[in-house]
Specification:
alpha/beta; binds zinc ion; 7-stranded mixed beta sheet; Metallo-beta-lactamase, Chain A; 8 helices
């Protein structure tokens, strides 16, 4: 499995960066995992939209979904980006409802903004999905909106993307023995402690502890403010012995 970092910025793009986006490829299958602000421009450096098999949207915060609007615009207006079939978009039913509302804002009176371009498919923790060789599972996170983490498995390899979420013991279970775990690190650890346990984000140190308890092989920290990146990474490295690095835009990871 190949995992390309398209964007690892948090709630807004870091200078010169994009918000959350990962291109997951196995064989000829290509799955875009989240499509935040700036992700489409990064994606198009690696692949054209007709080559994209599906998109997964973890939740409806703008830093995870807003560039899906620009994907739709590309499909409608850029001849070289047109597809023969609508692009499958996997998300929870709550996220789909918000995306439909967003589409209605842009579509004027006919309300058909997404029709023919993006085909929404509701997913949930109750059911796995198959995308070519990729088996996909989902788990709710503790966030401010309904948010799904993603697990992708193929050929005995396992990738887990934690999306956005606060402290949650269930995440360790979901990520058990993953080859690559991508976890948010929005907060410095002092901030996390000050906010208490009821919050929708974690620190790099907390991410490292989750990764260690889950027995994952490698941790990538995402959703971090660029100016805090070195400190987030240092805190994570000090918190455990798991192999950890920052997700840097453009990097390719084998999983
Ligand atoms: Zn976010
Ligand atoms: Zn969020």
């Amino acid at each position: 499995m190949r995992v390309r970092v398209l964007g690892s910025s948090p709630v807004r793009p870091n200078p010169g960066g994009a918000c959350t986006g990962y291109l997951v490829q196995e064989g000829s299958q290509s799955l875009l995992v989240d499509c935040g602000t700036g992700v489409l421009g990064q994606l198009l450096q690696h692949l054209s939209l007709p080559q994209l098999d599906a998109v997964f949207i973890s939740h409806a915060h703008p830093d995870h979904c807003l560039d899906l609007v620009n994907i739709r615009q590309s499909l409608a207006y850029v001849p070289s980006e047109r597809r023969r079939h609508p692009l499958p978009v996997l998300a929870s039913s709550a996220t789909i409802a918000t995306l439909r509302e967003l589409g209605a804002v842009f579509s004027g009176t006919d309300g058909a903004f997404w029709d023919g371009y993006c085909a929404f498919h509701a997913v949930s923790p109750e059911q796995s999905e198959q995308l070519g060789p990729l088996t996909l599972d989902f788990a709710w996170t503790r966030h401010y909106l309904p948010c799904l983490a993603l697990r992708a498995r193929a050929d005995n390899r396992c990738l887990v993307f934690g999306a956005d979420g606060g402290p949650d013991d269930d995440l360790e279970h979901f990520a058990t023995a993953a080859d690559l775990l991508i976890l948010e690190s929005t907060l410095l650890h002092g901030q996390a402690l000050a906010e208490g346990p009821e919050r929708g984000h974690i620190s790099g140190a907390e991410a490292a502890r989750v990764a260690e308890r889950a027995g994952v092989r490698r941790l990538l920290l995402t959703h971090y403010f660029a100016e805090w990146g070195p400190q987030v990474l240092a805190e994570a490295r000090a918190a455990g012995s798991v192999t950890v690095d920052l997700a840097r835009q453009g990097d390719l990871h084998e999983c």
